[in-house]
Amino acid sequence: AQSVAQPEDQVNVAEGNPLTVKCTYSVSGNPYLFWYVQYPNRGLQFLLKYITGDNLVKGSYGFEAEFNKSQTSFHLKKPSALVSDSALYFCAVRDGDYGQNFVFGPGTRLSVLP
Amino acid sequence: GAVVSQHPSRVICKSGTSVKIECRSLDFQATTMFWYRQFPKQSLMLMATSNEGSKATYEQGVEKDKFLINHASLTLSTLTVTSAHPEDSSFYICSAPQLGRVNEAFFGQGTRLTVV
After folding, report:
1. In this predicted model, what pLDDT tens digit does every residue of B8-53 receive, in sequence order?
2. I need a surface site. Which of A89, A105, B26, B73 has the fewest CB within 10 A?
3. Which residues of B touch A49 (CB under 8 A)?
C-alpha cells in the first residue's frame, strides 16, 4: 500500500529566507509524486509533480521539489519565501494506475513571517 | 488548466435534513470523480470513487446509505449527505482526473458543511 509522511506539522520561516517542506513516501512500484497547496476554506491547488525524468521538478509560484529515490523523499523548496506562501501544503502519491486515487500526507502548515 | 467547480462552497443545515453537494468538470469529461472528507487540521481522506454510469465505490467505514453518490453524466457527480448530524460537519472536496491528462487530478473548491 502507498503512504506518505510529512514529518513536520508546522514550518516557520522568515520572509526572504529559503523554505523546505519535507515529504517521504512508500510505494510498491514507480512513484508518481505531487505537491498541492490549500488556502483556508479552499480546495487544493496543484503546485508540481514528478512522474519521470529530471529529479528536480519546477512548479508554480517559484516552488520546486527534488525527487530522491534512495531516500524515498520529495521535499518541496523555494529559494525565497513570501508571506503569501503561508498555507497548508500536502504531498501526495498516486495510488495505482491511470485515473486512480491519490494518497495524501497529513499536511504541513507553512507560516512565513514578515 | 482544467476546472472543477464544486457547489455550494458553504452550507448550514439542521440535524436530520439532507444536503446535496455538486461537483462539475467545466471544460473536460470525467468518467471518475473522487470525494474526500477533511477534518480540521487533518489530511484528506478518500470517501468514495464516483463512476459515471455505475455504482460508486466506497472506502471501508463509509456508510453508503448516508453518503449517496450519483455520477449522472461525464461532467457531474453529486454527494448527498442524508439525515445529517453534527458529526457530519466537515470540509468535503471532490476531484476529477482529466481524460488524456495522465497522472493529474483537479480539485473543486471544497464545501464547508455545518450541521446544527
Report:
1. 999 999 999 999 999 999 888 888 899 999 887 778 899 999 988 8
2. B26
3. 103-104
Q: Do B43 and A98 touch (CB under 8 A)?
A: no
Using a pLDDT cut of 70, give the percent of chain A over it.
95
DSSP collapsed to 3 states, A31-68: CCEEEEEECCCCCEEEEEEECCCCCEEECHHHCEEEEE
Beta strands B105-107; B44-51: pairing state: unpaired
Per-residue pLDDT of A86-103, as tens digits, reads 999 999 998 655 446 788
Where do the DSSP E strands lie in B14-108?
A: 19-25, 32-38, 44-51, 57-58, 67-73, 76-81, 90-97, 105-107
Determine whether the interchain pair A41/B110 forms a contact, defined as Cβ–Cβ distance below 8 Å.
yes
What residue in A sits closest to B35 (Cα-Cα)?
Answer: A101
Give contacts of B91 with chain A, Cβ < 8 Å. Answer: 41
Joined together, the cell numbers standing for residue B86 give 453534527
Of A32, A49, A104, the CB nearest to B44: A104
Q: Is B72 exposed, middle or buried (0-12, 13-18, 19+ CB in 10 A)?
A: exposed
Residue ranges of A 56-95 with Cβ closer than 8 A to chain B = 90, 94
